Give the backbone structure.
Amino acid sequence: NLGRRPEALAAYEAAAAVDPANETLQQKIEEVRVDVPGLLSRALIASASGNYAQARSLFDDVLEVDESNVNALIGKAVAYRRSGKPQEAVNCLDLVLGVQPNNASALLNRGNILEEEGDLEGALATFDRLTELYPNDEEAWAAQGDVLVKMGRDDDALRAYTEAQKLSPGDEGIQRHILELEAAKTVQSDVFQELFTIKGIGKVRAKSLIDAGFKTAEDFAKANLRDLMVARGITRKIAEELKDHFGSSLAEAR
């Protein structure tokens, strides 16, 4: 730990002479002979510089000495992710979680990769675990909120962002997410109520339209009949009523 590697090697070899069958000592001897901290440092610099193949090779050199080295596995995962190999990155992170199931960095990276790859359910499950383990980690709550937004679960996303804001009140990005969701919620509420005034629209059809992405008067006015009929329960006649209603509303507003 003091960086005095030659003296450390001599001490470990003396210990091994007393207890030759001790596998832990043999591993420590190999680790001291191989400059693991130096290799890790070089690998991280290579990864940050975009030399991902070199970085992975250096991380592998560390893993040959210590196959469960968490820092090397996470670093290798990041290098794989940056070089466009998400599945290989997830595999490395799963190895980390096999050794340290509660490793926050591995969980966060794993969730981010799954989100990028479109596996929102898998990402959410990972972030749910992360927030359960580390409820004081604002980054975990914010990541959970991002996934929930993509899933269309705005109310749940708002709760996640609110938790993140409690932990980091000055974070402008989190504040912006909250303001956007609150504004959208107000708009949706207004449109939701207005939909009830249209013949043939009840609560179920109104929600179906909102879920299909029609959240403002402009959305309805610009949509064609076929787009509107994609929403569950919307017939051609109802779609025509919607177009007439919101088209007239916008014309009056202008």
Notes: The first helix runs from residue 5 to 18. Residues 12 and 29 are 6 Å apart (CA to CA).
